[in-house]
TrEMBL record:
It comes from Actinomycetospora rhizophila. Belongs to the LysR transcriptional regulatory family. This is LysR family transcriptional regulator. Keywords: DNA-binding, Transcription, Transcription regulation. The keyword Transcription regulation applies. Residues 11-68 form the HTH lysR-type domain. Residues 310-330 are annotated as: Disordered. InterPro entries: LysR-type_TF, LysR_HTH_N, LysR_subst-bd, WH-like_DNA-bd_sf, WH_DNA-bd_sf, YidZ_PBP2. Signal peptide: none annotated.
Length: 330
């Protein structure tokens, strides 16, 4: 016998919001922080949900909690419900940036934070000082299912990948960059650096899978130009961290010009053009098509595009021949 349908008049819709965050975070404290309630209020909400569903929802497994089978089922149901409610109430009026308290969530690698983060922060603060920004850093790799991820966040700032170019995901080109190589100043290979040197030297590589190859997607076109796989001496979960493992060694790091330029005032490092004529780096904003007509998201897209246009080119002292990257938002 099916369970009787509950009347909306008898439901506390705040519990739906808490349920979504609880199932996302799998942690009562973090769920409370996400929706801005106290720990006692979150514990009381969890108790009410457990009574309503006659299920524990969160089950302790060693030092952490996991979702119960029913909670796994609810996780797939609560997201479209919340999306529908958000879409319903968004249509009641235009977004007003000057008095909005909305939080926007963006996922991006640390390189994009370096290239765009400060300008985006300043632009948003000037236009909408009450809005909040939650920046999530890419952890090793982009989500395996970006469409599913974009159902619950406002956007991903990333280079194009096959997974991102899928039905239901929209994109906007923001800026372009190019690859350079960073070496120790005393590395004899720095003068006349070529593909043979790139193949021979040990590499410092960000977001390199354990035992996997090739490395992170943006480097794939360059790696395809090499006659052999480079030796990866250091794996690190950050583009910004790579130069620290080059200084004082014979290693090389391949990184984005905009990011490398922030280290150009270090006399112990040398920045040289990347050999092999690798293609330009293209960075885009990606979002779920359901947000196409959301006034707040349209505003956000405009702010991000403006920030990409306004982001300053980072000058590079002559520690090695390096040319300015093109900067052409679509």
């Amino acid at each position: 016998m099916s369970r009787p349908r509950a009347s909306l008049a008898n439901l506390d819709l705040n519990l739906v919001v808490f349920l979504r965050e609880l199932l996302r975070e799998r942690n009562v404290t973090r769920a409370a922080e996400r929706i801005g309630v106290t720990q006692p209020a979150a514990s009381a909400a969890l108790l009410r949900l457990r009574r309503h569903f006659s299920d524990e929802l969160l089950v302790r497994n060693g030092a952490q909690f996991v979702l119960s089978p029913l909670a796994e089922q609810l996780a797939g149901q609560v997201e479209p419900v919340c999306e529908g409610l958000e879409a319903l109430f968004v249509t009641t009026g235009d977004f007003r940036a000057d008095d909005s308290r909305r939080e926007f969530t963006l996922l991006m690698p640390d390189y994009v934070v370096c290239a765009l983060g400060e300008t985006l922060s300043r632009t948003m603060h000037r236009a909408a000082p009450g809005t909040r920004l939650h920046v999530k850093l890419v952890n090793e790799a982009l989500p395996a299912d970006p469409l599913d991820t974009l159902r619950v966040i406002d956007g991903i700032l990333s280079a194009p990948t096959q997974a991102l170019r899928t039905a239901g995901i929209r994109d906007l080109e923001l800026f372009r960059d190019r690859w350079v190589c960073v070496l120790d100043r005393d590395n004899p290979a720095a003068d006349g650096f070529g593909l043979a040197d790139l193949e021979a030297l040990p590499w410092v590589v960000p977001h390199h899978p354990d035992g996997g190859y090739p490395a992170s997607y943006p480097l794939t076109p360059l790696l395809a130009r090499l006659s052999r796989r480079p030796h990866v001496a250091v794996r690190v979960d950050s583009y910004r961290a790579t130069p620290y493992f080059v200084a004082g060694t014979d290693r090389v790091a391949v990184m984005q010009r905009r990011l490398a330029a922030t280290f150009a005032d270090r006399p112990d490092l040398r920045i040289v053009p990347c050999p092999g004529d690798p293609p330009e780096i293209v960075e885009c904003l990606w979002w779920h098509q359901r947000l196409d007509d959301d006034p707040a998201h349209r505003w956000l897209r405009g702010v991000i595009r403006q920030a990409a246009r306004d982001a300053p080119e980072i000058p590079t002292p002559d520690h090695g021949a390096i040319t300015a990257a093109s900067h052409t938002p679509r």
